Task: structure prediction
Amino acid sequence: MPHRLLLLLPLLLAGCSSPAYFQAVPPSNPQHAMLYLYRPEASNPGLMQPLRYDYPEVFIDEQSIGTLKFNSHRHVELTPGQHSIRITGLSQAARWEPRDIQQKLTLAPAQIKYLKLDVQYNLDEMMLGQPKPSYTIYLTPMRSEDAVYEIRHTKPQ
Result:
């Protein structure tokens, strides 16, 4: 019996998860900047995740860079200067009901910047028996020291 347990030990240890790892990719051109957009899991209590199966399309300077799905991240290399970002459900690629979020962003050469799409249940406005859930949705600039710890638990898109 103990020998059988020893045979199973490598399988059990392989199933143990190790801490996730993430390292930002610098721009390929030092005169460019890198923007990371990510959408981590919500920090609301319980197993339900708000808008888990819904996803917006992301436009930078009116050009689509794709969708931003639940618990994922993506990066895009951009020229320095000011850029407009729009998170929208008003496209064929999106599956997203909330209103658009628009922001301006200024990037410097060789800069790496992080934007977090934070989707949470608005527990202050939700009541038992309410027909539809309420959400808070923000596109928030994040410090790199914080972003890398959140992004490492998301999947690249």
